[in-house]
């Protein structure tokens, strides 16, 4: 796709206020393959994660340029606690440095940071840093960067079920009120639209407990490159792929406006 076409798509996405569009409103990234990237080069796994943060920075800048409104990144899953202690500490250190070093630039670029995942069980300093990133940027109106940290989709759904059960037991909600909207409203992503596109690097083709509920009608792009090699070109190619999908949401006719119909 020529750069000019790309920008035209981006502009039309900004104008439309509802429904699917050529440029996805919400892209979610499964940043996989840091370890394999490092192993291929005879480097420690930590170096793969460190280079992964650089790729994350590039991805955020590219998302702003493309006109994406929400970018969710899977940075630490609940299952990642079972990695070696040293690797977990390394990832926590990278999160620290990412927020410390990049928060000012994110804020200057009108990025709003949101964090999804369980706060319980996090070190107090990590939890405080996540809160700070959200508070400092809460008035921003540009890209929303959703950091999935200590996140697990099944855990999120179980917590929503508990909250709904409590509301029913307390008489605040009736059984008949429990529908798909009610469940969505009790997830960490309550005020965030569902992802239109999920991109996973490293060649793996699975969701790994990421946004299971929200991904019901997401499109998927699986890239054969490892996360540290993800760049603006790879991002734009994935968006172009998405723009040619017919999204039917269970209906017969495509309901998406896309690059083919231009509608
Ligand atoms: C998967 O690669 C990646 C992760 C578990 C962590 C993702 C984290 C980053 C990109 C950098 C950290 C960013 C923040 C903000 C904390 P893997 O290690 O599972 O790769 P492998 O499957 O090749 O071993």
From TrEMBL:
User: What residues does substrate bind to?
Assistant: 33-37, 45, 49, 77-79, 81, 83, 200, 206-208
The answer, when asked if Kinase is one of the entry's keywords, is no
Coiled-coil positions are: none
Which HAMAP family does the UniProt entry name for this protein?
ISPT (MF_01139)
Q: What family, per the record?
A: Belongs to the UPP synthase family.
Q: How does it assemble?
A: Homodimer.
The name this protein carries in UniProt is Isoprenyl transferase
Species per Swiss-Prot/TrEMBL record? Methylocystis heyeri
């Amino acid at each position: 796709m020529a750069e000019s076409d790309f920008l035209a798509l981006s502009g039309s996405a900004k104008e439309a206020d509802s429904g699917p569009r050529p440029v996805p409103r919400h892209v979610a990234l499964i940043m996989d393959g840091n370890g394999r990237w490092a192993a291929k080069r005879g480097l420690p796994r930590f170096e793969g994660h460190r280079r992964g943060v650089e790729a994350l920075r590039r991805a955020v800048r590219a998302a702003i340029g493309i006109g994406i409104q929400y970018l969710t990144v899977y940075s630490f899953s609940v299952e990642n606690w079972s990695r070696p202690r040293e690797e977990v500490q390394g990832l926590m250190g990278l999160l620290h440095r990412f927020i410390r070093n990049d928060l000012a630039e994110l804020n200057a670029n009108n990025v709003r940071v949101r964090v999804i995942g369980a706060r319980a069980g996090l070190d107090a300093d990590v939890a405080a840093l996540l809160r700070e990133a959200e508070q400092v940027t809460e008035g921003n109106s540009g890209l929303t960067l959703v950091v999935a940290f200590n996140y697990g989709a099944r855990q999120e759904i179980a917590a929503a079920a508990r909250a709904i059960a409590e509301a029913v037991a307390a008489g605040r909600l009736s059984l008949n009120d429990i529908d798909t909207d009610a469940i969505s409203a009790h997830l960490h992503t309550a005020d965030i639209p569902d992802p239109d596109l999920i991109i996973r690097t490293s060649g793996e083709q699975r969701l790994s407990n990421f946004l299971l509920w929200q991904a019901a009608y997401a499109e998927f792009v699986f890239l054969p490159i490892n996360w540290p090699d993800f760049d603006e070109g790879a991002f734009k190619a994935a968006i172009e792929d998405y723009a040619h999908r017919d999204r039917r949401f269970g209906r017969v006719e495509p309901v998406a406006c896309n690059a083919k119909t231009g509608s």
